[in-house]
Amino acid sequence: MSLSALRVAIIVFPGSNCDRDMMVAIERLAGRRPALVWHKETSLDPVDLAIIPGGFSYGDYLRCGALAARSPIMEAVLDHAARGGAVMGICNGFQVLLEAGLLPGVLVENAGLKYVCRNTCIEVVGGTDSPFTAGLAPGHRMIIPVAHNEGNYFAGDEDLQRLEDNGQIAFRYVDSDIVGPANPNGAARDIAGIVSANGRVMGMMPHPERAISAELGSADGATMLTASLEALIS
Amino acid sequence: MQVIVNISLKEGVLDPQGRAIGRSLTDLGFQEVGEVRVGKRISLDIDETDPARAEQRVARMCETLLANTVIEDYEIEIAGENEA
């Protein structure tokens, strides 16, 4: 089946600002424009992938992602995930998935207390069967930018060990000659992205949709997204 | 009825903001300052007259939205409960 058969929905909250970037990225890679779904909607047409994009949903009020995670559309996203549907959250979307309880842990303020906007080098860890890492070899390195103030992944020691033992750490920050020191935010165990126990829900801080062509500094995000889309269609 | 929710970071959770404030206080000459932790205070005006019921409802609000219990603890104060 061709990638254009894949039905993708991008959820839009007040304050989302990477929804269109993601739409352009997916349309370019899959040849079909994803649906943009406003957060007030209460149902989701059947989709193969629901994406929670980056941004500042609800102005980051209360806690990043907290209010978005309780938006009307999230019931439908939770149902979709409960049926084994694939969900991807990028940056603020990752924060939303944690607040919604779809993934364990929390993203707290960067250890350096500063908003960090730069390229990072992340390495595919994987281990569990997940469409988000299936097409990428463990150890594969990608240059993908981060842009956040709360990307410091935190979870209790037990949760961290469980993530590690179950192969749920999808991506880890690593040192690189090109982009400098690994961990931009103090994240526990250099975690840049994790997947759910069944591998179908993935959250990551780096923005693959901002790295889809050499003109943007890196096309590694395109590699990552295409691998995920291909795994979802097969 | 006015209800106050005090939200604080759990023990063991790093508080970079508190640490930066602590460092600034020390720099300003307040040498006696040790650890600093920053929390949140949320005041709610609740349409309810029974303090016990109000507290129960607010506890649910904390669990559903106001606090992230992975990293935060909350305390509920019913304002004016000990007055009159």
Write the layout of secondary structure elements.
The complex is a heterodimer of chains A (234) and B (84).
Chain A: E1 8-12, H1 19-30, E2 35-38, E3 49-52, H2 72-82, E4 86-90, H3 92-99, E5 106-108, E6 116-124, E7 141-148, E8 152-154, H4 157-165, E9 169-173, E10 191-195, E11 201-204, H5 220-233
Parallel strand pairs in A: 1-2, 1-3, 3-4, 4-11
Antiparallel strand pairs in A: 5-8, 6-7, 6-9, 9-10, 10-11
Helix pairs in contact in A: 1-5
Chain B: E1 2-9, H1 16-27, E2 40-45, H2 51-66, E3 72-78
Antiparallel strand pairs in B: 1-2, 1-3
Structure summary, number of beta strands of chain A? 11
Given the C-alpha coordinates, what overall shape of chain A results? globular
CATH superfamily of chain B: Phosphoribosylformylglycinamidine synthase subunit PurS
What is the fold named in CATH at topology level of chain B? Mth169, Chain: A
In percent, how helical is the residue content of chain A? 10-25%
Task: Sum this structure up briefly.
The complex is a heterodimer of chains A (234) and B (84). In chain A, a hairpin with a 5-residue loop joins strand 10 (191-195) and strand 11.
What would your notes on this structure say?
The complex is a heterodimer of chains A (234) and B (84). Chain A is 23% helix and 24% strand. Chain A is an alpha/beta fold and 234 residues long. In chain A, strands 2-1-3-4-11-10-9-6-7 form a nine-stranded mixed beta sheet, sandwiched between helices. The radius of gyration of chain A is 16 Å and the shape is globular. Chain B is an alpha+beta fold and 84 residues long. The two termini of chain B are 14 Å apart. In chain B, 12% of the residues are buried. The chains are: A alpha/beta (234), B alpha+beta (84).
